[in-house]
Amino acid sequence: MKTRDLSELAARNLREAVLRNSLTTLGIAVGVASLVAMLSLGVGLQELANKRLSKSGLFDAVFVSSKTNQRGMGRQNPPESPASKELAKIPLDDEARQKIASLPNVVEVYPEIRFPSEIQFEGKPYSTTVAGIPASAKAEGAFDGMKGNFFSSQNGDEAILQIEFAKDLSSQPDSLIGKNLVMRYAERQPLPAEPGGNKSAAAAGAKSSDEPKDLSPGFSIVPKEKTFHIIGIVETEPATGIGGFGRGRLLIPLQVAETLRITQANDLRGILRRSGSPRTYDSLTVRVKSPSLVKSVEDAIQHMGYGTFSLLDATKSLRLVFAVFDLFLGIFGSLALAVASLGIVNTLVMAILERRREIGILKALGAADRDIRRLFFAEAGVMGLLGGIFGVTLGWLIGTALTFGTNVYLRKRDLPPIDLSSVPWWMVASAIAFSVVVSLAAGIYPASRAAKLNPVEALRYE
């Protein structure tokens, strides 16, 4: 039997029992719709999580620290080789910062400046934590929907308040924008070198022959004040690297924080180890062009002799969780499609009983068993194809309705809207193909039964 004749015969048979075939196709469509709706929710939630985490600035960053600072921490250190001892002596200073910044695929390198301070506002003191924020932090999700503006420049005396700290300052936080506050901090000022310092060092029993001359005896801590203009209020604390969950409750430009020469914990460690040594950083944050390039940059920094930390392992665990989540959603969504496949079996088996005489005539005219089998497969495939197309459309509408309802709920609570569901092209193609495959599988038994009919008995059947 020619393919064209087979297609025309299958289309005629589907039109003759239009109600029953339409209901079967609708059952397939509902099954596909449930599958697409559930998978779209899983994909949408995964894309939402990846988008928010990527915008947090944590997954394209490498956090660098000196191996000297990693020692101790209340743990028993493993035996050190001579090579590891030499690497531990490499300071994390301005020279190291420049070397790391010159590495391929590195966008920027900046220190994590975070310190306690006292704020004077309208004659009252408030204790809080101040943090320096780089210009690149504007793209982080923490600043989406902030009230006011981001820093106009990295050199401006401007400040952004975290909402909880703003509530401490005023019962009406929005009214703080445009006002000034005074920040009190401890400035690090180096002491002048003592005359004849080299001789004093020798008299004190210095053993090193290459000890630098005129070593500074240390630094003094001087209280300072600086006025900042409040330009914005942010709902959440921007994420940080090593040492805390948030950067601070009072945010100032990073370049301004660096010029203030704030006394940090590593300054005290440095003065105990060696007076007059260059100022070192407790940690540095390295921004990379893409999360996929983090591993190569991290390896290069470790080769330079510094300790590193990134969140690559966390992303792997996150992908595993979403993969299992999508698997379970797909299984539950496929149950409705499995039920719909029973409808296909029922429809085609009933068609055999109604069309036994027609099957007998076809066989008497020379139709082979494979032609009868192909005829029933074609009818099952058409129902699966139409059911898949309608099901994908219905599933997309369900996902859109859920997203709309969710965003209405979020807007009532002054929360930003989200894309709850996502139907990518591969899901559309997979759902339609899966629908056709399931329909063909459901048509195997009816097609085989129709092909095995005896033409003589089929012609005698009334």
Molecular structure report:
The chain has 462 residues and is an alpha+beta fold. The protein has three domains: 3-54 and 317-460, no CATH class; 60-111 and 283-310, 2-Layer Sandwich (Alpha-Beta Plaits); 113-278, no CATH class. Helix content is 52%, strand content 17%. The protein has 16 helices and eleven strands. It has helices spanning 3-16, 18-55, 67-70, 82-88, 94-101, 163-169, 197-203, 254-259, 265-273, 294-303, 312-354, 356-364, 369-412, 425-442, 444-451, 455-460, and strands at residues 61-66, 106-111, 114-121, 124-133, 147-148, 158-162, 180-190, 219-234, 250-253, 284-288, 306-309. The chain has a six-stranded mixed β-barrel with strand order 3-4-9-6-8-7. The model is unreliable at 70-84, 198-215 and 240-245 (pLDDT under 50).
Throw out a few tags for this protein.
462 residues; alpha+beta; Alpha-Beta Plaits; 3 domains; six-stranded mixed β-barrel; four-stranded antiparallel sheet; 16 helices; 17% strand; elongated
SSE blueprint and pairings:
Elements: H1 3-16, H2 18-55, E1 61-66, H3 67-70, H4 82-88, H5 94-101, E2 106-111, E3 114-121, E4 124-133, E5 147-148, E6 158-162, H6 163-169, E7 180-190, H7 197-203, E8 219-234, E9 250-253, H8 254-259, H9 265-273, E10 284-288, H10 294-303, E11 306-309, H11 312-354, H12 356-364, H13 369-412, H14 425-442, H15 444-451, H16 455-460
Parallel strand pairs: 4-9, 6-8
Antiparallel strand pairs: 1-10, 1-11, 2-10, 3-4, 3-7, 5-8, 6-9, 7-8
